[in-house]
């Protein structure tokens, strides 16, 4: 790396400070439904940014954590760059105490360490680096609160911000091979409620209509919709139902996960799912389907490909090899891409085994990934 680049040089000396901030974030429980915890993570980030003269706007959310918007740089005709990241994790309250942050053998562990508290740290230090340099480039960092449950509160905030920027870099965890993500599946999360009729399972079994049997038969039919050749999957991930072992179940429910690659596949799959919902496998049973949350796919456009190529070129200048790959997981980057805003995802530090007790981060990627992002931003032509 050539010397004399104030932003890159400063970031190069921030490894220990990054690890320290990461530990504070990881040791704070912030499951999606823990508003207080998600907001506490936001407070820690705001305290860090304020040390560099960066003020934050809080966008209140009643049920979930508040969104936080930080901006630096001149306000004028140049559209800003958007750094995106979410503060919530999939882990329950108490997980931070059970598995506190630790670093062993070059890997950091703890709930949400890679997905995506390391990305929050990286974005925050990149903002600080540019602020120290006089904030020559307009930039916005958006810290959201509910991505792990499909961003029900944050999606309007993300979309409103993305309409006014020139590029989005979403700091989901980078891959272990240093790749970023250029395409993602869309996802629809649904709740299925099945109703039957209760009856004593010994005295008058024949009078009952088993909601559990109906759900079981629907589950088999739903799973049969999976077509791996086109990337469409349907998974019944949660089920419940029944009153007692000696009662024909009057009600049962399930939660369904649909994943697809191309936007037209969504309607075809939902139509097939609805047909199964409408069909009564057990005479007299009925069912209702509701959509609980949804992500749209990240589809690489020519503008996004150009932004990706700029990131690859900047990384190469720093001695890093980066490529793009497709991911089956969903992310907020789909929302920004769908608006036509050039988007690159998984620019965060590299990690793996997310959403599990074995989740880890390669700590030595904190600084290089921050530098790659910063140099990409510096090299973008004014717009």
Automatic annotation (TrEMBL):
Its cofactor is Zn(2+). SUPFAM superfamilies: Bacterial exopeptidase dimerisation domain, Zn-dependent exopeptidases. Keywords: Hydrolase, Metal-binding, Zinc. Residues 182-281 form the Peptidase M20 dimerisation domain. InterPro entries: ArgE/DapE_CS, Bact_exopeptidase_dim_dom, Pept_M20_glutamate_carboxypep, Peptidase_M20, Peptidase_M20_dimer, Peptidase_M20A. Pfam families: M20_dimer (PF07687), Peptidase_M20 (PF01546). The active site is at residues 88, 147. One of its GO terms (molecular function) is metal ion binding. Gene3D superfamilies: 3.30.70.360, Zn peptidases. This is Peptidase M20. The lineage of its organism: Bacteria, Pseudomonadati, Pseudomonadota, Alphaproteobacteria, Rhodobacterales.
């Amino acid at each position: 790396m050539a010397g004399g680049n104030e932003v890159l040089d400063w970031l190069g000396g921030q490894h220990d400070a990054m690890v320290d901030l990461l530990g504070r974030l990881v040791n704070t429980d912030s499951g999606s439904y823990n508003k207080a915890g998600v907001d506490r993570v936001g407070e820690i980030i705001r305290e860090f940014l304020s040390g560099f003269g960066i003020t934050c706007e809080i966008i209140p959310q009643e049920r979930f954590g508040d969104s936080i918007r930080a901006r630096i740089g001149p306000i004028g005709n140049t559209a800003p760059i958007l750094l995106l990241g979410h503060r919530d994790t999939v882990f329950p309250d108490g997980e931070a105490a059970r598995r506190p942050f630790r670093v062993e053998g070059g890997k950091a562990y703890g709930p949400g360490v890679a997905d995506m508290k390391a990305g929050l740290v990286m974005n925050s230090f990149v903002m600080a680096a540019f602020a120290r340099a006089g904030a020559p480039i307009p930039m916005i960092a958006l810290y959201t609160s509910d991505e792990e449950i499909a961003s029900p509160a944050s999606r309007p905030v993300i979309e409103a911000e993305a309409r006014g920027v020139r590029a989005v870099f979403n700091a989901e965890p980078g891959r272990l091979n240093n790749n970023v993500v250029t395409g993602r599946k869309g996802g629809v999360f649904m709740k299925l409620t099945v109703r039957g009729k209760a009856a004593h399972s010994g005295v008058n079994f024949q009078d009952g209509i088993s909601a559990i049997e109906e759900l079981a038969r629907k589950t088999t039919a739903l799973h049969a919709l999976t077509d791996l050749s086109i990337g469409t999957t349907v998974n019944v991930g949660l089920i419940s139902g029944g009153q007692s072992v000696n009662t024909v179940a009057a009600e049962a429910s399930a939660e369904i996960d649909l994943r697809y690659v191309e936007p037209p596949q969504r309607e075809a799959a939902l139509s097939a799912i609805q047909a199964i919902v409408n069909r009564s496998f057990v005479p007299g049973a009925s069912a209702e389907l509701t959509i609980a949350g949804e992500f749209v796919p990240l589809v690489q456009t020519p503008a996004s490909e150009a932004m990706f190529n700029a990131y690859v070129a900047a990384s190469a200048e720093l001695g890093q090899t980066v490529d793009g790959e497709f991911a089956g997981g969903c992310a907020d980057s789909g929302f920004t891409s769908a608006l036509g805003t050039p988007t690159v995802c998984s620019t965060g530090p590299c990690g793996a085994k997310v959403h599990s007790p074995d989740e880890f981060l390669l700590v030595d990627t904190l600084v290089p990934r921050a530098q790659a992002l910063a140099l990409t931003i510096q090299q973008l032509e004014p717009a």
